[in-house]
Design a protein that fits this description.
This protein is an alpha/beta fold. The protein contains 18 helices and 38 strands. The strands form eight sheets. It has a nine-stranded mixed beta sheet with strand order 17-16-18-19-26-25-24-21-22, covered by helices on one side. A six-stranded mixed beta sheet has the order 5-4-3-6-7-37.
Length: 704
């Protein structure tokens, strides 16, 4: 329904003025002449022309008052009903698998059709995430119910969301418990309980725990949890294979119907690189599935762990945050040392480390001359973190590529903004997106001056103003690599990211990439291939970055870079890197499960350059680990959201429950809009019509 009113900023009596002007002008032009004519005029026509002239003059003068049309449009929005269907593999792991592939889906279509008669039904499937494509094939390899409910909230926030119908077996293997994590979604939730709650006959590798990294020559543990359901008294053989070779055999006897056994085994790291260990349990007759009888794990065996010194002026929340972020990558070990505790033999102590992080050193309350001189002699790479306790005059005298003058002890709150021209390394798209939401660091106020070979990763944004002042930069002003973080408060980045995403992946990646660059030994290769990981899940895209250098070690992307990937069977796949600024990027897509070798090739200065490496794609078996439906979780989820649990045979009762729910009602919205009357095209057309009609009659009658 559309309603409108006419308004003007001028007093209402101005309209009578417009009326007076129109009537005076019209009467003076036509009836006045009528009274003076000696011949009998066409009185009727003259009054018509008088009316046309009055209308034209009145409308034109009224438009001078700048009138506005205030329109009101009333819309009624149906309640939105979200129907989310679990598309994960675990739904079919029961005796009713045929039912869920046929009759159940037909009944679901009937439910959707009947609800659509009254409500705005949005149909989705889900596994690890909410999918707009509602095609149901029960092929998703992970389930994250809490992420699905968060996605529903994000999609329909501010809309008339009436209810969510969640059809699932209640088994989740990603994310947190949806009963406790679902706080934002304030709407009714109805659940349809799928799957089977009876314990199936099955033998499986339930869980394997181990370190993702081991060190060459050391031993490492593998903890195996084997389970047998419904096989009381059966003998279960647990075997461990290393790259196809049998390493260990254990025999266990199931002594009850719900038997689990944890084995802790130790193995020696004998070879470098990615090592595959396969854990199997023997097959038993009548098992639900044999797919969960085997599990592969991958352990990266490396030569040694790099030690990093985190040298601090005083305790600070940043210290623990930095240590945790760096040690998320097991290639690094971080030791926190306070400057006041340093021994006199600094040289031998510092040489144990590949990188020194100087947190607010040089400081205002500590003489750091001896320490800084020793660092310079050792030529150890370093990362400065500046803050309120930093002694900026002393720092400026170090000539590390940055100086900050006119500070006077003041600080700014600086938001990080990615420098698009930065080319030393790259971040994932997820990290770049999340970095937008990082809270500000507390940076020294003053004039920032850079010198020498400086590369800025982040620039400072002060309030709404984006500046050219660096927030994180790297310098090669001396014989060692230097990094500078011009502010304290990294702990806030991790806290904020966890509050928004329940992870700290982005802040970890930022800190890890900074540390990797600074601690890496000088690489003389002209072709370098990097990846954020050496193992990929089977549903994850395999991606690489590449850098090409001229013989003078200048970054270039003039040459084409190719990559040949070879699987365990010797079959090769050829890829071509795409160019981006001065680096290269390659997305190989999703590759089959297995171990792969790769070789990259290019031409630099007319000579061939190549480099090689390896990676692994491992299977996801999460949906086969837990096979008993969790209807209690679904009942709790419905209960705390004022809903109810239904079984597939009761699906039609959901319609009655929704129709009887007084909260689920249409919502009426009113939209208001202001528009200048003079901008309406029909007003112009109307004026042309009245003026043209008057002119036509005047000419036809010989003019008045």
């Amino acid at each position: 329904m559309l309603l409108f009113t006419l308004i003007t900023e001028k007093p209402w009596w101005f309209i009578f003025g417009c009326f007076s002007i129109g009537i005076t002008y019209a009467l003076a032009l036509y009836p006045y002449k009528l009274l003076r004519k000696t011949e009998k005029p066409n009185t009727k026509l003259i009054w018509w022309m008088t009316a046309l002239r009055f209308i034209s003059i009145f409308v034109l003068s009224f438009l001078l008052l700048s009138p506005l049309i205030k329109s009101f449009q009333r819309e009624v929005q149906k309640p939105v009903i979200v129907l989310a269907q679990d598309n994960s593999r675990s739904v079919l792991l029961n005796k009713d698998s045929t039912f869920y592939q046929t009759s159940y889906l037909e009944n679901l279509e009937v439910l959707k059709s009947k609800l659509s008669e009254t409500f705005d039904v949005r149909y989705y499937s889900f596994g690890k995430q909410l999918n707009d494509d509602p095609k149901i094939n029960y092929d998703d390899k992970q389930t994250n119910i809490s992420a699905v409910l968060d996605a529903v909230y994000d999609k329909f926030e501010g809309q008339n969301l009436g209810a969510v119908i969640l059809a699932s077996d209640g088994i989740y293997n990603q994310g947190s418990n949806p009963v406790y994590s679902n706080k934002k979604l304030r709407t009714t939730v109805y659940t349809i309980a799928l799957g089977d709650t009876t314990l199936p006959r099955d033998v499986l590798v339930k869980r394997v725990r181990t370190n993702s990294i081991a060190y060459l020559g050391n031993s490492f543990p593998i903890e195996i949890e084997a389970a047998a359901y419904g096989y009381n008294g059966s003998n279960i053989i647990v075997s461990v294979f290393h790259n196809g070779q049998l390493e260990s055999v254990q025999s266990i006897v199931a002594n009850n119907l719900r038997f689990t056994k944890t084995l802790l085994l130790n193995f020696n790291a004998k070879a470098k690189g990615m090592q595959r260990y396969t854990i199997t349990v023997s097959h038993q007759k009548g098992e639900l599935s044999y797919l969960n009888n085997v599990k592969d794990i991958y352990i990266d065996v490396i030569d040694g762990r790099q030690k990093i010194m985190l040298l601090a002026n005083a305790p600070h929340p940043d210290l623990g945050a930095i240590k945790n972020a760096i040690e998320a990558n097991q290639n690094y070990e971080v030791n926190i040392v306070y400057a006041r505790d340093l021994s006199s033999d600094l040289s031998s102590f510092i040489r144990e480390y590949t990188l020194v992080i100087l947190h607010q050193i040089p400081s205002v309350d500590l003489s750091s001359k001896n320490l800084l001189e020793t660092l310079s002699k050792c030529k150890v790479p370093r990362l400065y973190i500046l803050g309120s306790q930093s002694n900026l005059p002393v720092f400026n005298s170090l000539n590390e590529g940055l100086s900050i003058s006119y500070n006077r002890g003041n600080t700014n709150d600086a938001i990080p903004k990615v420098n698009k021209e930065f080319n030393l390394f790259s971040f994932s798209e997820e990290t770049l997106n999340n970095s937008i939401n990082f809270p500000p660091l507390q940076t020294p106020f003053g004039n920032y001056t850079t010198a020498g070979d400086v590369n800025m990763l982040f620039k400072q944004q002060i309030g709404a103003t984006q500046t050219d002042m660096p927030l994180i930069l790297f310098s090669k002003a001396n014989e060692y690599k230097t990094g500078i973080i011009c502010g304290e408060g990294f702990w806030r980045w991790r806290l904020q990211e966890y509050a928004q995403t329940q992870s700290q992946t982005a802040s970890n990646e930022v800190m890890t990439k900074v540390i990797q660059y600074l601690s890496a030994k000088e690489d003389k290769r002209l072709l370098r291939i990097t990846s954020t990981q050496k193992t990929f899940e089977e549903n994850e895209n395999v991606m690489f970055d590449a850098e090409v250098y001229t013989p003078g070690y200048e970054l270039t992307n003039e040459s084409d870079v190719g990559l040949k990937v070879i699987n365990e069977g010797g079959k090769s796949f050829d890829f071509q890197f795409s160019k981006s600024v001065k680096v290269y990027h390659l997305d190989c897509g999703i590759l089959p499960i297995g171990a792969y070798r790769y070789t990259a090739n290019t031409i630099v200065g007319g000579k061939p350059e190549s480099t090689s490496g390896q990676f692994t794609v491992f299977p996801l078996q999460a949906e086969f680990t837990e096979t008993v439906a969790n209807h209690q979780l679904l009942a709790s989820l419905a209960s705390i959201n004022n809903g109810k649990l239904f079984y597939p045979s009761e699906m039609q009762q959901i319609i009655k429950a929704i129709n009887s729910n007084e909260i689920i009602k249409p919502v009426s919205y009113e939209r208001q809009q202001l528009q200048d009357l003079i901008n309406l095209k029909w007003i112009f057309g109307f004026l042309i019509f009245t003026l043209t009609a008057e002119w036509f009659f005047r000419k036809r009658e010989g003019g008045y």
